């Protein structure tokens, strides 16, 4: 059952490959966190340049939120947590040396208030359960405006898996990491991955060039 939850992130990435590039415009009010455009959400997602030593499995893709993607992004009753959501994005990578996988997910909202309201709904209702019933919490440090992380298992044989959720302004961000062998991922590595995604979202909302990368 846990394994199906983890492979669900790969399904999300595959679905996103059918999405068309848009170029919808951003609309943030002055003095507030910016609501990102479709192109900006795609820029937030790590790409090859941001992930040295990792191989891209699914390219960064962002789609306009609709009923199909609400079911994927907010897989709880009534798709709660997707209210006032604008775009959904994902990219995935693998690391051949240690058989590790990571999926990055982004949901962009109309406002910071909408993202804040969705945060607990999605963590408690879905994402916080993805590392298994015996997962332990771990510290992400002062990352984003809100943050949670759990480290547990991703498969039936005790393979390691972890999930992080972060709110940065008008976005909710997830890093889902797993390995097919024991020792393929650890808390420090997952923290670094989550930090790259959060930093890229902050750069985009600040109107800066999006350049955060692993080891950068």
From TrEMBL:
Superkingdom of the source species: Bacteria
Keyword entries, A-Z: Signal
Keyword Signal: yes
Signal peptide (residue range): 1-26
Protein name: DUF3558 domain-containing protein
Lineage, opening ranks: Bacteria, Bacillati, Actinomycetota, Actinomycetes, Kitasatosporales
